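WARN retry 2 of 3 for item q-0093 after timeout on previous attempt; input resubmitted unchanged.
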Amino acid sequence: MLKTLACILLAGLAIPALAQTTLSLPAEARVDVQVIDSVTLNQNTPELANVLLRPVARIGSSATHRLPDYCLITADARLVDQGMRLSTNTVTCIEAEGDNRAIFSGELSAAAFERDGGFGLDVCTERRDGRCTSATLEPSHAFQLSIGRDTEIAELDNPAEEINEQRRSAAGE
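OK item q-0093 returned
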């Protein structure tokens, strides 16, 4: 009887670990984003690492998915003949629902596309011999990321949330 009770107790303790959620994006999903700060590339600086992006919501968008409102995406930018290309590296999101906060952080493989579906971003500001020699991407320029492969990012432990839950329990809330 004692062994059965211990097994039930251990199973109950394991349930919260199994109840964690994931941030899921299927391959070819499209999400609307924009840069946080202006990005300028030219012949002297044709590449830039760790460009920060954030999700946006746009009326009339052709996006197929939305990221939580509080996300940061890192990407690499590269000047190409047509303009600028961005490829993502990581994503970190905080999803707030009532008093609960879920944190997701992991790899994200995606490429930037214009709203019309064209690969890369048409942000060329100077051309020579038919090639883009300078491009600037402003925060006002919304575009889409196309997810390259199925992405499942598990929820991370949130020590601050656990401490807050303990405080609420101790206070009798």
